[in-house]
Amino acid sequence: MERMTFDLASSSLTEMNTFLHKGLEEGDKRHISVLNPDGAHNIAVGLNHPVTVEVHGHAGYYAGGMNKHARVVIHGSAGTGVAENMMSGSVHVKGFASNGAGATAHGGLLVIDGDAGLRCGISLKGADIVVGGSVGSFSGFMAQAGRMVICGDAGDALGDSLYEAVIYLRGNVKSLGADAQFEDMTDADYAVLAELLSKAGMDHDPKSFKRIASARTLYHWNADANQEY
Amino acid sequence: MCGIVGLLVKTPALKERLGELMVPMLIGMTERGPDSAGLAVFGDSLADNARKLSLYSGLTDDGADFNWHGLTHALKEHLDVDAHIDVKHNHAVLSFAVSPELVKRWLRENHPKLHILSTGRTIDLYKDIGTPAQVAERYDFKSMKGSHLVGHTRMATESAVTPDRAHPFTAGEDFCLVHNGSLSNPNSIRRKLTPAGIHFETDNDTEAACRFLEWRLREGDDLEVALQKGFDELDGFFTFLMGTPEKLALIRDPFACKPAVVAETDDYVAIASEFRSLAHLPDVKHANVFEPAPEEMYVWNA
Lengths: 229, 302
What we know:
The complex is a heterodimer of chains A (about 230) and B (about 300). Chain A has a single domain, classed as 3 Solenoid (Pectate Lyase C-like), CATH 2.160.20. The mean pLDDT of chain A is about 95. Chain A has an 11-stranded mixed beta sheet, with helices on one face. Chain A is elongated. Chain A is α/β, with parallel strands linked by helices. Chain A has 2 helices and 11 strands, in the order βαβββββββββαβ. Chain B has 2 domains: about 1-45 and about 130-300, Glutamine Phosphoribosylpyrophosphate, subunit 1, domain 1 (4-Layer Sandwich), CATH 3.60.20; about 50-120, Alpha-Beta Plaits. Helix content of chain B is about 25%, strand content about 30%. Chain B has helices at about 10-15, 20-30, 70-80, 100-110, 130-140, 185-195, 205-220, 225-235, and strands spanning about 1-10, 35-40, 50-55, 85-90, 90-95, 115-120, 125-130, 150-155, 170, 175-185, 235-245, 245-250, 260-265, 270, 290, 295-300. In chain B, a hairpin with a 3-residue loop joins β13 and β14. At the A-B interface, loops of A face loops of B. Chain B: This is Putative N-methyl glutamate synthase subunit A.
């Protein structure tokens, strides 16, 4: 397979992203290495072909954002909004990720080997997220569809105002958000977890996770609730 | 938006290169803060009875042509103070061995437009409007030496773009603070501090945080206790980076609305709003890079 390298110490990010947007052909499966990312923003955003992009170092904001079809691997940490609004494909962060990882993602798989910051998976719309470490507060806020697997702990207000996304948590949670509740695991949940953990390359026992989903009490206006949820 | 940078070096050799290592950090934060920049450097301490003031003449009628040596002569004549002056463009560091209050009162009476940026035994402070590259060049930041520093690039949101509203802010002696974010209760903090005799020089929200924390330290709180009171009383968004002669300290608001990243090696601790300001540092590929958690205190000793 053809391999290409972009060294961001000597070529511009715009040059690379322009190539990734306009220089590839339908179904292109090339392997592209990115050297010296040095925290630049918007690395490999808006991809639309099944290429593999390997980023060797720390990425800045929105790396792999809006991804479709491509496989993006970041051998370092990722800044705010990694894989934000991803549609399909995968983004794998080998280090930690900052706030808003996988926010609004519609499809595909986001794997973060380390910790994720606050608001991980906020407004998730169908993607799967697997976090090897812990997630910060307000993760899964208003998540509508998709699955979040958290192998470590979670901060405050996990799954606040959840819709139909499901969260699997292995560690402890500081607090659940409004309308989020622990539920019994079913065989279907174990099967989903086994599949997601396997895809993410993590070998935890699915039996060690708890399921968190919406109690659905916020779905309809309740005049008797007196604004207390 | 704003950018913060901090650097604390652990070896004598790197103390000589403090400014040189920092300038790319500051310039790396230009997109986050293009309108003003500033720097506080903590170097060797003066003798117990000596003090230095960092002064800014840009707001005086003479601007950068201010007669600094006339100032030292006048201090000798009026107060019998032997002062040393180290001039960099419209900034100068004035050092002497008398009570700083005596000199500051005289300055306020005789040069009311001369802005006193900092007071202490170890801190030198420079700040001005302009891009980080322009400000760094104007005051030769790359030549700065010392054990640690606190820098800032500003994109003003809460008050006007003027040199005195640039960061770092200082209060008391040898204390400075830079801020990325915006406070929602700076005026109630001011109303609380004013009756305690605390005077504010600008309408900037960061000044309220700076004076609040310095007030707590002066009232006897240790840094950790003061920072906890900061969490309790300061409302809004903030990543604060503070400097004292012995320490750098960092805190982030509970929502971690404003970024921060740290790279630590055996030789240095470097802090910035984003990794792109750390990428050039020596051996950063092997540094322990992490994101400070919200509502935690991070304190590094010089």
